[in-house]
Amino acid sequence: MRGVSGFRHAIGEEEFPAEPGRYHLFVALNCPWCHRVTLARSVLGLQNSVTMDVAFLNRTGDDDPEGPNLWEFAPDRVASLTGATLPECTVETGTGRGLRLAKEIYRADDSEEQSLPILYDKIAGRIVNNESADIIRMLDVAADALGSTIPTAERVRLYPDDDMLRQHLYDLNDLIYRTINNGAYKAGFSSDQRIYEAAFDAYFETLEQLEKLLSDGRPFLLGVHFSEADLRLFPTLYRHDPVYNMRMKLNGARILDYPNLWRWLCRVYALPGVANAGSLVHCRQGYFGRSWNGVVPSGPFKPMPYPEAYLHPDLAAL
Protein backbone atom coordinates (compact mmCIF):
# COMPACT_ATOMS: atom_id res chain seq x y z
CA MET A 1 0.00 0.00 0.00
CA ARG A 2 1.51 3.30 -1.09
CA GLY A 3 1.24 6.39 1.12
CA VAL A 4 -0.93 9.33 0.14
CA SER A 5 1.02 12.42 -0.96
CA GLY A 6 0.24 15.32 1.34
CA PHE A 7 1.10 18.24 -0.97
CA ARG A 8 -1.29 18.62 -3.89
CA HIS A 9 -1.03 22.27 -4.97
CA ALA A 10 -0.67 23.09 -8.65
CA ILE A 11 1.42 25.44 -10.73
CA GLY A 12 -1.05 28.03 -11.98
CA GLU A 13 -2.79 28.56 -8.65
CA GLU A 14 -2.65 32.14 -7.37
CA GLU A 15 0.18 31.47 -4.92
CA PHE A 16 2.15 29.36 -7.43
CA PRO A 17 2.25 31.27 -10.75
CA ALA A 18 3.83 29.65 -13.81
CA GLU A 19 7.16 31.44 -14.24
CA PRO A 20 10.52 30.38 -15.69
CA GLY A 21 13.18 29.72 -13.07
CA ARG A 22 10.79 29.66 -10.13
CA TYR A 23 10.45 25.91 -9.58
CA HIS A 24 12.82 23.20 -8.47
CA LEU A 25 12.70 19.40 -8.37
CA PHE A 26 14.17 17.08 -5.77
CA VAL A 27 14.55 13.56 -7.16
CA ALA A 28 16.43 10.26 -6.92
CA LEU A 29 17.32 8.66 -10.25
CA ASN A 30 16.78 5.09 -9.04
CA CYS A 31 13.17 5.87 -8.04
CA PRO A 32 10.64 5.11 -10.82
CA TRP A 33 8.20 7.74 -9.51
CA CYS A 34 10.97 10.34 -9.75
CA HIS A 35 11.88 8.98 -13.18
CA ARG A 36 8.43 10.02 -14.43
CA VAL A 37 9.22 13.58 -13.40
CA THR A 38 12.74 13.72 -14.86
CA LEU A 39 11.34 12.32 -18.11
CA ALA A 40 8.66 15.01 -18.25
CA ARG A 41 11.20 17.73 -17.53
CA SER A 42 13.42 16.47 -20.37
CA VAL A 43 10.89 15.75 -23.11
CA LEU A 44 9.12 19.07 -22.43
CA GLY A 45 12.35 21.07 -22.74
CA LEU A 46 12.35 22.38 -19.17
CA GLN A 47 15.91 21.49 -18.16
CA ASN A 48 17.02 25.14 -18.21
CA SER A 49 14.00 26.62 -16.43
CA VAL A 50 13.11 23.98 -13.80
CA THR A 51 16.21 23.33 -11.70
CA MET A 52 16.88 19.96 -10.07
CA ASP A 53 18.82 18.26 -7.29
CA VAL A 54 19.57 14.52 -7.25
CA ALA A 55 19.77 12.50 -4.02
CA PHE A 56 22.22 9.68 -3.48
CA LEU A 57 20.70 6.39 -4.58
CA ASN A 58 21.03 4.54 -1.26
CA ARG A 59 19.27 6.02 1.74
CA THR A 60 20.74 6.63 5.18
CA GLY A 61 21.70 3.69 7.39
CA ASP A 62 21.05 2.81 11.02
CA ASP A 63 24.06 4.87 12.09
CA ASP A 64 22.68 8.15 10.78
CA PRO A 65 21.78 10.63 13.57
CA GLU A 66 18.41 11.29 11.88
CA GLY A 67 17.68 7.61 11.44
CA PRO A 68 17.68 5.05 8.60
CA ASN A 69 15.94 4.96 5.22
CA LEU A 70 16.07 8.69 4.48
CA TRP A 71 16.85 10.33 1.13
CA GLU A 72 20.14 12.22 1.41
CA PHE A 73 21.80 14.83 -0.81
CA ALA A 74 25.35 13.57 -0.50
CA PRO A 75 27.48 13.77 -3.67
CA ASP A 76 30.54 12.62 -1.72
CA ARG A 77 29.10 9.18 -0.96
CA VAL A 78 30.71 6.33 -2.89
CA ALA A 79 28.64 3.77 -4.81
CA SER A 80 29.78 0.20 -4.19
CA LEU A 81 28.94 -0.69 -7.81
CA THR A 82 31.46 1.77 -9.26
CA GLY A 83 33.77 2.33 -6.29
CA ALA A 84 33.43 6.06 -6.89
CA THR A 85 31.17 9.02 -6.36
CA LEU A 86 28.44 9.51 -8.95
CA PRO A 87 28.47 12.71 -11.02
CA GLU A 88 24.69 12.99 -11.15
CA CYS A 89 24.33 13.33 -7.36
CA THR A 90 24.18 16.87 -6.02
CA VAL A 91 24.05 18.91 -2.87
CA GLU A 92 20.70 20.50 -2.02
CA THR A 93 20.35 23.87 -3.76
CA GLY A 94 16.60 24.41 -4.05
CA THR A 95 15.94 25.86 -0.60
CA GLY A 96 19.14 27.91 -0.50
CA ARG A 97 20.01 26.34 2.87
CA GLY A 98 22.05 23.35 1.78
CA LEU A 99 19.88 20.85 3.61
CA ARG A 100 21.17 17.29 3.82
CA LEU A 101 17.93 15.30 3.92
CA ALA A 102 14.66 15.42 1.99
CA LYS A 103 13.03 15.03 5.41
CA GLU A 104 14.39 18.47 6.37
CA ILE A 105 12.65 20.06 3.38
CA TYR A 106 9.37 18.60 4.59
CA ARG A 107 10.06 19.55 8.19
CA ALA A 108 10.40 23.19 7.15
CA ASP A 109 6.87 22.89 5.75
CA ASP A 110 5.56 21.32 9.00
CA SER A 111 5.31 17.83 7.50
CA GLU A 112 6.65 14.47 8.60
CA GLU A 113 6.74 13.10 5.04
CA GLN A 114 10.06 12.12 3.50
CA SER A 115 9.35 10.89 -0.04
CA LEU A 116 10.67 12.01 -3.40
CA PRO A 117 9.94 13.58 -5.84
CA ILE A 118 9.26 17.06 -4.53
CA LEU A 119 8.25 20.07 -6.64
CA TYR A 120 9.42 23.18 -4.76
CA ASP A 121 8.77 26.90 -5.18
CA LYS A 122 12.09 28.67 -4.66
CA ILE A 123 10.52 32.12 -4.33
CA ALA A 124 7.77 31.19 -1.87
CA GLY A 125 10.07 28.72 -0.09
CA ARG A 126 7.33 26.09 -0.05
CA ILE A 127 6.62 22.61 -1.32
CA VAL A 128 4.10 22.73 -4.16
CA ASN A 129 3.45 19.05 -4.80
CA ASN A 130 4.93 15.63 -4.08
CA GLU A 131 2.69 13.44 -6.24
CA SER A 132 4.50 12.44 -9.44
CA ALA A 133 1.29 12.01 -11.46
CA ASP A 134 0.28 15.60 -10.64
CA ILE A 135 3.73 17.00 -11.35
CA ILE A 136 4.10 15.52 -14.84
CA ARG A 137 0.68 16.83 -15.87
CA MET A 138 1.23 20.35 -14.55
CA LEU A 139 4.65 20.55 -16.23
CA ASP A 140 2.98 19.57 -19.49
CA VAL A 141 0.08 22.03 -19.19
CA ALA A 142 2.33 24.93 -18.12
CA ALA A 143 5.36 24.12 -20.32
CA ASP A 144 5.21 27.34 -22.36
CA ALA A 145 4.82 29.61 -19.32
CA LEU A 146 7.58 27.75 -17.49
CA GLY A 147 10.04 28.50 -20.29
CA SER A 148 10.26 25.39 -22.46
CA THR A 149 13.08 25.58 -24.99
CA ILE A 150 11.08 23.46 -27.46
CA PRO A 151 8.63 25.33 -29.72
CA THR A 152 5.01 24.47 -28.97
CA ALA A 153 4.43 22.93 -32.40
CA GLU A 154 7.42 20.58 -31.97
CA ARG A 155 6.91 19.62 -28.32
CA VAL A 156 5.16 16.46 -27.19
CA ARG A 157 1.76 16.93 -25.54
CA LEU A 158 1.46 14.44 -22.72
CA TYR A 159 -2.18 15.17 -21.91
CA PRO A 160 -4.34 15.06 -25.07
CA ASP A 161 -7.11 17.57 -25.86
CA ASP A 162 -9.45 14.99 -27.40
CA ASP A 163 -12.04 13.67 -24.90
CA MET A 164 -12.01 10.12 -26.29
CA LEU A 165 -8.24 9.96 -26.13
CA ARG A 166 -8.36 11.29 -22.58
CA GLN A 167 -10.69 8.49 -21.52
CA HIS A 168 -8.42 5.95 -23.15
CA LEU A 169 -5.50 7.61 -21.33
CA TYR A 170 -7.27 7.36 -17.96
CA ASP A 171 -7.97 3.66 -18.56
CA LEU A 172 -4.37 2.95 -19.54
CA ASN A 173 -2.97 4.98 -16.64
CA ASP A 174 -5.12 3.05 -14.18
CA LEU A 175 -4.16 -0.34 -15.62
CA ILE A 176 -0.46 0.51 -15.84
CA TYR A 177 -0.33 1.90 -12.31
CA ARG A 178 -2.17 -1.01 -10.67
CA THR A 179 -0.53 -3.91 -12.42
CA ILE A 180 2.82 -2.61 -13.70
CA ASN A 181 4.14 0.41 -11.75
CA ASN A 182 2.79 -0.54 -8.34
CA GLY A 183 2.40 -4.20 -9.32
CA ALA A 184 6.17 -4.59 -9.57
CA TYR A 185 6.51 -3.46 -5.97
CA LYS A 186 3.69 -5.73 -4.80
CA ALA A 187 5.49 -8.68 -6.35
CA GLY A 188 8.94 -7.66 -5.19
CA PHE A 189 8.22 -6.82 -1.58
CA SER A 190 5.30 -9.05 -0.64
CA SER A 191 5.96 -11.59 2.12
CA ASP A 192 2.84 -13.57 1.21
CA GLN A 193 3.18 -16.16 -1.58
CA ARG A 194 -0.41 -15.74 -2.75
CA ILE A 195 -0.19 -11.95 -2.94
CA TYR A 196 3.11 -12.24 -4.81
CA GLU A 197 1.65 -14.70 -7.32
CA ALA A 198 -1.42 -12.53 -7.91
CA ALA A 199 0.79 -9.49 -8.57
CA PHE A 200 3.12 -11.57 -10.78
CA ASP A 201 0.20 -12.87 -12.86
CA ALA A 202 -1.39 -9.42 -13.23
CA TYR A 203 1.96 -7.91 -14.28
CA PHE A 204 2.55 -10.37 -17.10
CA GLU A 205 -1.10 -10.38 -18.17
CA THR A 206 -0.84 -6.64 -18.67
CA LEU A 207 2.40 -7.01 -20.63
CA GLU A 208 0.55 -9.40 -22.95
CA GLN A 209 -2.30 -6.92 -23.26
CA LEU A 210 0.06 -4.06 -24.12
CA GLU A 211 1.95 -6.27 -26.56
CA LYS A 212 -1.32 -6.94 -28.36
CA LEU A 213 -2.26 -3.23 -28.30
CA LEU A 214 1.00 -2.35 -30.05
CA SER A 215 0.65 -5.17 -32.59
CA ASP A 216 -1.35 -2.96 -34.97
CA GLY A 217 1.82 -0.98 -35.73
CA ARG A 218 1.04 2.10 -33.64
CA PRO A 219 4.25 3.72 -32.41
CA PHE A 220 2.86 4.69 -28.99
CA LEU A 221 0.15 3.50 -26.62
CA LEU A 222 -2.47 6.03 -27.69
CA GLY A 223 -1.53 5.87 -31.34
CA VAL A 224 0.69 8.25 -33.29
CA HIS A 225 1.68 10.58 -30.45
CA PHE A 226 3.76 10.01 -27.34
CA SER A 227 1.58 10.64 -24.27
CA GLU A 228 1.43 10.50 -20.49
CA ALA A 229 0.62 6.78 -20.69
CA ASP A 230 3.93 6.07 -22.44
CA LEU A 231 5.81 8.22 -19.96
CA ARG A 232 4.26 6.40 -16.99
CA LEU A 233 4.94 2.93 -18.40
CA PHE A 234 8.54 3.60 -19.45
CA PRO A 235 10.28 3.75 -16.02
CA THR A 236 9.10 0.26 -15.04
CA LEU A 237 9.89 -1.43 -18.36
CA TYR A 238 13.25 0.38 -18.50
CA ARG A 239 14.09 -1.36 -15.22
CA HIS A 240 12.55 -4.75 -15.98
CA ASP A 241 15.26 -6.73 -17.79
CA PRO A 242 18.33 -5.47 -15.86
CA VAL A 243 16.73 -5.09 -12.39
CA TYR A 244 13.13 -6.15 -11.80
CA ASN A 245 13.45 -9.53 -13.51
CA MET A 246 15.59 -10.61 -10.56
CA ARG A 247 15.08 -8.06 -7.76
CA MET A 248 11.27 -7.98 -7.97
CA LYS A 249 11.00 -11.72 -8.70
CA LEU A 250 9.39 -10.89 -12.08
CA ASN A 251 11.30 -13.59 -13.92
CA GLY A 252 8.43 -14.79 -16.11
CA ALA A 253 9.90 -13.13 -19.19
CA ARG A 254 12.05 -10.25 -20.35
CA ILE A 255 10.73 -7.25 -22.25
CA LEU A 256 13.01 -8.57 -25.00
CA ASP A 257 10.59 -11.50 -25.28
CA TYR A 258 7.76 -9.14 -26.33
CA PRO A 259 8.76 -7.83 -29.78
CA ASN A 260 6.27 -4.97 -29.95
CA LEU A 261 6.93 -3.81 -26.40
CA TRP A 262 10.68 -4.04 -26.92
CA ARG A 263 10.51 -1.91 -30.05
CA TRP A 264 8.25 0.53 -28.20
CA LEU A 265 10.80 0.70 -25.34
CA CYS A 266 13.62 1.41 -27.78
CA ARG A 267 11.47 4.00 -29.60
CA VAL A 268 10.80 5.89 -26.37
CA TYR A 269 14.44 5.62 -25.29
CA ALA A 270 15.45 7.25 -28.59
CA LEU A 271 13.29 10.34 -28.01
CA PRO A 272 15.33 13.48 -27.32
CA GLY A 273 16.10 13.83 -23.62
CA VAL A 274 14.91 10.40 -22.54
CA ALA A 275 18.25 8.58 -22.27
CA ASN A 276 19.70 11.31 -20.04
CA ALA A 277 16.64 11.43 -17.75
CA GLY A 278 17.50 8.16 -15.99
CA SER A 279 20.44 6.00 -14.95
CA LEU A 280 20.70 2.23 -14.73
CA VAL A 281 23.79 2.62 -12.55
CA HIS A 282 21.57 4.39 -10.02
CA CYS A 283 18.83 1.79 -10.50
CA ARG A 284 21.06 -1.25 -10.09
CA GLN A 285 22.88 0.18 -7.07
CA GLY A 286 19.68 1.61 -5.61
CA TYR A 287 17.71 -1.66 -5.71
CA PHE A 288 20.33 -4.33 -5.16
CA GLY A 289 22.34 -2.12 -2.81
CA ARG A 290 19.40 -2.29 -0.39
CA SER A 291 19.20 -6.08 -0.52
CA TRP A 292 20.32 -8.22 2.42
CA ASN A 293 24.01 -8.25 1.49
CA GLY A 294 24.24 -5.12 -0.69
CA VAL A 295 25.89 -6.95 -3.62
CA VAL A 296 24.90 -5.71 -7.09
CA PRO A 297 24.68 -8.37 -9.86
CA SER A 298 27.03 -7.78 -12.79
CA GLY A 299 24.66 -8.80 -15.60
CA PRO A 300 22.86 -9.14 -17.80
CA PHE A 301 25.32 -8.92 -20.68
CA LYS A 302 23.49 -10.99 -23.33
CA PRO A 303 22.39 -10.24 -25.95
CA MET A 304 24.27 -7.08 -24.89
CA PRO A 305 24.65 -4.89 -21.80
CA TYR A 306 21.96 -2.43 -20.78
CA PRO A 307 21.18 0.40 -21.49
CA GLU A 308 23.09 -0.06 -24.77
CA ALA A 309 20.53 -2.73 -25.68
CA TYR A 310 17.85 -0.04 -25.88
CA LEU A 311 19.60 1.34 -28.95
CA HIS A 312 18.85 -1.91 -30.81
CA PRO A 313 15.15 -2.53 -31.51
CA ASP A 314 16.17 -5.44 -33.76
CA LEU A 315 17.19 -7.51 -30.69
CA ALA A 316 13.57 -8.41 -29.98
CA ALA A 317 12.52 -12.01 -30.45
CA LEU A 318 10.71 -12.57 -33.72
Walkthrough of the structure:
The chain is mainly α and 318 residues long. It folds into 2 domains: 23-154, Glutaredoxin (3-Layer(aba) Sandwich), CATH 3.40.30.10; 163-315, Glutathione S-transferase Yfyf (Class Pi), Chain A, domain 2 (Up-down Bundle). The chain has helices spanning 32-43, 102-107, 132-141, 143-146, 163-189, 193-213, 228-247, 259-269, 280-288, and strands at residues 23-27, 51-54, 118-121, 126-129. A 4-stranded mixed sheet has the order 2-1-3-4. It is globular and about 50 Å long. The two termini are 38 Å apart. The model has no long low-confidence stretch (mean pLDDT 95).
Please specify the SSE layout and strand pairing.
Layout: E1 23-27, H1 32-43, E2 51-54, H2 102-107, E3 118-121, E4 126-129, H3 132-141, H4 143-146, H5 163-189, H6 193-213, H7 228-247, H8 259-269, H9 280-288
Parallel strand pairs: 1-2
Antiparallel strand pairs: 1-3, 3-4
Helix pairs in contact: 1-3, 1-7, 5-6, 5-7, 7-9
SSE series: EHEHEEHHHHHHH
The beta-strand count equals 4
Q: How many domain regions?
A: 2
> Helix/strand/pairing class, anyone?
mainly alpha
At CATH level 3, the topology of the largest domain is Glutathione S-transferase Yfyf (Class Pi), Chain A, domain 2
Q: For the report, how would you describe the main beta sheet?
A: 4 strands, mixed
The CATH C-level name of the largest domain is: Mainly Alpha
Strand content: 5-15%
Oligomer: single chain
Strand order of the largest sheet: 2-1-3-4
Q: Report how far the terminal alpha carbons are from each other.
A: 38 Å
How many helices does DSSP assign? Answer: 9
Overall geometry: globular
- Radius of gyration of CA atoms, rounded to a whole number: 19 Å
Poorly predicted runs of 5 or more residues? none
In CATH terms, what is the architecture of the largest domain? Answer: Up-down Bundle
